[in-house]
Design goal:
This protein is 80% helix and 0% strand. By secondary structure, the protein is an all-alpha fold. Helix 5 runs parallel beside helix 9. It is globular, with a radius of gyration of 17 Å.
Length: 245
């Protein structure tokens, strides 16, 4: 792979996963659009999937903050949804999937700003499995399962630490399923695996800094930045559909 492409990929993954280590999500949302401009979009999704799986190692530092009664239904839904998304990988038009996801994010942001007392998500077996199913599907098909999890857990988690722990755990499980099913879909090329080895040290550096930032950021700032990341996600999805067809 050309040196310029490798260098841009390193910087992109470094910055994106400082954000994901800080907030529990956002790595794919920030990196996939940039990487897709330099390589095949499916290769970009595959490359990011490797690091979204590896960042799951943070769960060993966050597992005490996991609220299992909230998480377990989402896990079951996410595993099934990821398998479905992987099965349809390349068969469904990503253009329409991105619009659906963008409108879903926008509806939550409008609700949060103008109707804050309205409960967008409810803690229940059905709600958790549905959220997990949607998140897994978008993670398997687009590599963008974070927004559904964020919207579900942002209202139901007791604090920022629990929210972050839930996002890290669920996205890691979704990506583990993707890795397991990868031979069926020929998701990983030798070139992408080689590139991931070059990026790995910089990824670990980003995770270290992001994990440190998460410990000192205030709950109010944390909540605000989650909404900022969701807004950026919405704009990236719209921009990609309008200008990068």
């Amino acid at each position: 792979m050309p040196l310029l492409t490798t260098s841009i990929a390193i910087v992109t993954i470094l910055i994106a996963f400082i954000g994901e280590a800080t907030f529990g999500f956002g790595g794919g949302l920030l990196s996939i659009p940039i990487l897709s401009a330099m390589m095949d979009p499916q290769d970009a999704i595959a490359l990011v999937a490797i690091f979204q799986l590896l960042i799951g190692g943070l769960i060993f530092t966050t597992y005490k903050d996991v609220e299992w009664y909230l998480v377990l239904p989402v896990i079951f839904g996410a595993v099934a949804g990821t398998g479905i998304g992987m099965y349809f990988l390349g068969a469904l038009d990503p253009y329409f999937l991105r619009w659906f996801l963008a409108l879903f994010i926008l509806s939550f942001l409008i609700k949060n700003r103008f109707f804050p007392s309205y409960a967008f998500s409810r803690a229940s077996l059905t709600g958790g499995m549905t959220s997990g199913l949607l998140s897994g599907f978008f993670q398997g098909s687009l590599g963008l399962g974070g927004p559904n999890l964020v919207i579900y857990f942002k209202e139901l988690s007791k604090d920022k630490n629990s929210f972050r722990a839930h996002a890290i755990l669920l996205l890691s499980i979704s990506n583990l399923v993707r890795i397991i099913l990868a031979p069926m879909t020929h998701m990983f090329s030798s070139e992408i695996l080689t590139l991931s080895v070059y990026i790995l040290p910089f990824f670990l550096l980003g995770v270290f800094y992001g994990n440190s930032i998460s410990k000192i950021i205030s709950p109010k700032t944390y909540s605000f930045m989650v909404e900022v990341l969701l807004s950026i996600s919405f704009l990236c999805l719209v921009f990609k559909n309008l200008f990068v067809l």
